[in-house]
Amino acid sequence: MKRKRFSIYFNAPITLGFVAICVIAYGLSYLTADLSTVMVFSTYGSSLLNPMTYVRLICHVFGHNSFNHLASNMMYILLLGPMLEEKYHDRLITVIVTTALVTGIVHNIIQPDIMLLGASGVVFAFILLASITGKENGIPITLILAAAIWIGQEIYNGMTEADNISQITHIIGGLSGTVLGLIYKKN
Predict the structure, then answer these.
(1) Tens-place pLDDT, residues 35-44
(2) Least crowded by CB within 10 Å, which of 15, 65, 107, 112?
(3) Which whole-number Å values give the CA distances from 54 to 100, 140, 149, in the listed order?
């Protein structure tokens, strides 16, 4: 009887690439005393004539303000990403970039004086995209329940807690994942 060999394999290049960029961004932030975070890996209201404004609209999802912030977001990305990547392949890049742009633009309009960074919008896009993933046409009950509970919690937290968490980014990220999921499912 021939034994199967145990091996480690590279299963989700988009997910692993995203995580690697986030870890590198966090390391750069540490090495530059947060200068790289302010310059590249966060978004905030700045002149539309500044080319870095547009870079930051995407790159803010790679920046994190603490190791716990990074680890929490990466855990969700690593749990959900491979499953979504298997289903959606390269379209997962579109989910990440679209979520980054939409959350960055909305944030800069609503709260231009506050710096936004972190992959939380992408995490919530992945959560609701995972909830909509299935073989049947239509909208799954799991999506409706997950969205209702999650959006209700974000609204409640936004009204009752004074923290540095951008609930609007979570909501916009979740909506991005839902809309893109419905488009992908329809096609």
Answers:
(1) 999 999 999 9
(2) 112
(3) 11, 36, 33
Give the Cα separation of 118 and 43 in Å (integer): 10
For residue 138, what are the CA distances in angstroms to 132, 133, 185?
A: 9, 11, 8
52: left (phi over 0), alpha (psi -120 to 50) or beta: alpha
Q: How far apart are CA 120 and CA 82, in angstroms?
A: 17
Domain total in the chain: 1
Read off the CATH number of the domain in which 127 is found: 1.20.1540.10
- Report the C-alpha gap between 135 and 153 in whole angstroms: 28
What's the length of the chain?
187
Crossing angle between the packed helical segments 91-110 and 67-88, to the nearest 10 degrees: 140
End-to-end CA distance of the chain: 46
The secondary structure of residue 135, as a DSSP letter, is S
pTM over 0.85: yes
